[in-house]
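Lecture 7 notes. Example A: sequence first, then its structure tokens.
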Amino acid sequence: MHNHRLDHLRGSMVALVTPFRDGRIDEEAFLHLCERQITAGTSVLVPCGTTGEAPTLSHAEQILLIGLAVRAAKGRVPVLAGAGSNCTATTIELVRHAEALGADAALCITPYYNRPSQEGLFRHFEAIQASTTLPIVLYDVPKRTGVSLELDTIVRLAQLPNIVGLKDASGDMAKAGRLRYSVPSEFLRLCGDDALLGDHLALGSQGCISVTANITPALCAEMHRAWQDHDYGRFSRINAALSPLNGALFFESNPIAVKWALSQLGLVSDELRLPLTSLSSCHHPQVLRALAGILPFEARAFAHDDCLGQVA
């Protein structure tokens, strides 16, 4: 049966940062970030993921942020709520809170540190999806978790009623290619690495959960529209123009650089929670150069001016 809740989980989806002020969540800044994204054309808000510093958020803070995102969205765009943990029972609790708050789907990372087997991963997600009516998107990022969802496990999970997609941040394009022909066509395959977006879209991916969209939401949205319109030249020009920024945002562990960049735009404080620390001063010039190179085009895209001919 077709799940209409999934129709809009595609395109440019932003992995939102979590702004802090004096150690606490800056709710006003977070709501402003959400509104800026929606106005710029972002398709989906994704709070409480890696970019949102989920590992150093309390459960109460995660619940607060999901509620704020739902409030900001006002039904205009879906909210894909980060609700993962390395404890199955805790994940179920977070997913149920996300459902009660009105999130449209939940993004659940593979359990980290305890390194379960493939059968353990299957049972973890099987239990989560059985506990809710909320659509569940798997999140595979082995370089952070120490465990990878193997193709056969993803295929098994895709057969479960509430497992609806995968955020693929594995970097394994061979597996992504095989997955395309191993799961139902309605199963969402979402890029989790801005630098690999073109490769994923070429393999039929429906969208990207993006770090870069925090900085350039209008250009990222326009890039996805270009792909959907089969204007691959326009897509390639924007993608190439964003490449220096994509690289600069990963000079240090995400979200260190993106938060510093947003602070330079006056949108958030660059405050992070330990053990993350602010961007090293040696990287400031490189990030500033990347911002200076792309922000004029972002401003024109935000204003819906035709800047694409000037993006080389």
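Example B, a different protein, same format:
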Amino acid sequence: MRAFVALLPSALALTACASPFTNAAIGYNAILNEISAAQQSADQLPTSGTATYAGYLLLAAYDNTGASDDFIGDVDMDATFTAAGATLDGQVTNFQDNADEQPVAGTLRLNNGVLDRTASLTNPDNPGTQHSFFVNADGTLTNQAGDTFAFDSVIYGDVVGTDGSLLTGQVSGDAVINGVTESAGGTFAARAD
């Protein structure tokens, strides 16, 4: 996965205007501040019941020149807890394009997710590291110019905060951009409602 630096500084630096993109970036930054102050806590997760996590996904699709198309979307993900961990599913909607701060059509479906309270899930990009959760993130986005981005990706990350109240992670995968397969990456942050 390429370093995901193009979107993050520009997203978090936009504080003077009040576009939907800026508001999402500010919300994302607020969750990151909570995450940075919290400790990992997958072992403290509930053993039954459900929770809904809301947050943001910063997503980039890289073309063959290394340039990227950057998007931010709203995460809504449900967890169903068991003694072993949880199952995860949901969606990412309301995408905004970083280039023109315009809405982007489409939804990414979050599915086949698993949360392991022992944090023993192997990272697909770095087999030497372990994480608490994985969830597939697949779907097609279309920007205002009509370009299509078909994402086939996975979010992997960790649980932090009291009773697993915060999730943070990275995105890795592919994006078919107007018929050409390229790489995709990004970051993810969400809190339990």
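Note on Example B: DSSP finds two helices and ten strands in the chain. The CA atoms of residues 145 and 173 lie 23 Å apart.
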